[in-house]
From TrEMBL:
Species of provenance: Neorhizobium huautlense
GO molecular-function terms, A-Z: allantoin racemase activity
Protein's UniProt name: Allantoin racemase
Catalytic activity, EC: 5.1.99.3
UniProt keyword Isomerase present: yes
Gene3D superfamilies: 3.40.50.12500
PANTHER family per the UniProt record, alphabetical: PROTEIN DCG1
Coiled-coil parts of chain: none
Family: Belongs to the HyuE racemase family.
Length: 248
């Protein structure tokens, strides 16, 4: 089984962190192929960044499917371009936010997502509502830039720990969901420190992708995720014309 993990931002060091998390939980027979988007923002923090991360994401998925991958994981907690990716691809596509909250629902009645920037909190609240978890899940922001998680001289990890502590005290959270793919390497130490389940969306998505492939299931291709209708796309986006991207 070959699972393609796409980091839809353009920071390769974050892709390496994501790949390590994925390989720690993947089955022995699963090959993890982690790629960094070839175009777009260096980090995704809010709606504007998200829009410009989607073309590179779709390009990476099209290339992966031509290379014979069996499933895709989108490694951004905004579930960047998830619906468009499912319409494009013929293999299962998993977003790490949906994977994380659905996994956590099996083990906790009340849980909190702790994400990075305040501007990301409301979009994640909308996703939690979409996934039917609003009554069980709160979203908090530690107000830390995504890339500061990789800077040992920043106080990003201390601020993340502080917010987790507040979630346990004020939200009465029974589990914590890490609301950024760049936090994937912190799961084990945060579990040991706080003594509650800590869920990384990358790991959760890998295991869900493996399950779908094993069961022979993929995205429905009638209705919402039907293959896009062929039509001309003009200007800079002509390469993303339905059919052309997969044939390029």
């Amino acid at each position: 089984m070959r699972i393609l993990i796409v980091n839809p931002n353009t920071t390769a060091s974050m892709t390496a962190t994501i790949a390590d998390s994925a390989r720690r939980v993947a089955s022995r027979e699963t090959e993890i192929i982690a790629v960094t988007s070839s175009m777009g923002p260096v980090s995704i923090e809010g709606y504007y960044d998200e829009v410009f991360a989607i073309p590179g994401l779709l390009k990476a998925i099209a290339e992966g499917e031509k290379a014979g991958i069996d499933a895709v994981v989108i490694a951004c907690f905004d579930d960047t371009g998830l619906d468009a990716a499912r319409a494009l691809a013929n293999v299962p596509v998993i977003g790490i936010c949906e994977a994380a909250v659905s996994t956590t629902a099996f083990i906790a009645q009340k849980f909190t997502v702790v994400t990075t920037m305040e501007r990301s909190r409301l979009p994640l609240e909308h996703l939690v509502h979409r996934y039917g978890m609003s009554s069980r899940c709160k979203v908090r922001a530690a107000d830390i830039p995504v890339l500061s998680l990789e800077d040992p001289n920043s106080n990003a990890r201390d601020r993340l720990r502080r917010e987790i502590g507040l979630a346990l005290k004020e939200d009465r959270a029974e589990a914590i969901v890490l609301g950024c793919a760049g936090m994937a390497d912190l799961t084990v130490e945060l579990l040991a420190e706080f003594g509650v389940p800590v869920v990384d969306g990358v790991a959760a998505a890998v295991k869900q992708a493996e399950s779908l492939v094993t069961m022979g299931l993929s995205t429905a291709k009638r209705g919402a995720y039907a293959t896009p209708v062929s039509k001309p796309y003009l200007g800079l986006l002509d390469v993303f014309e339905p059919g052309r991207l997969m044939d390029a």
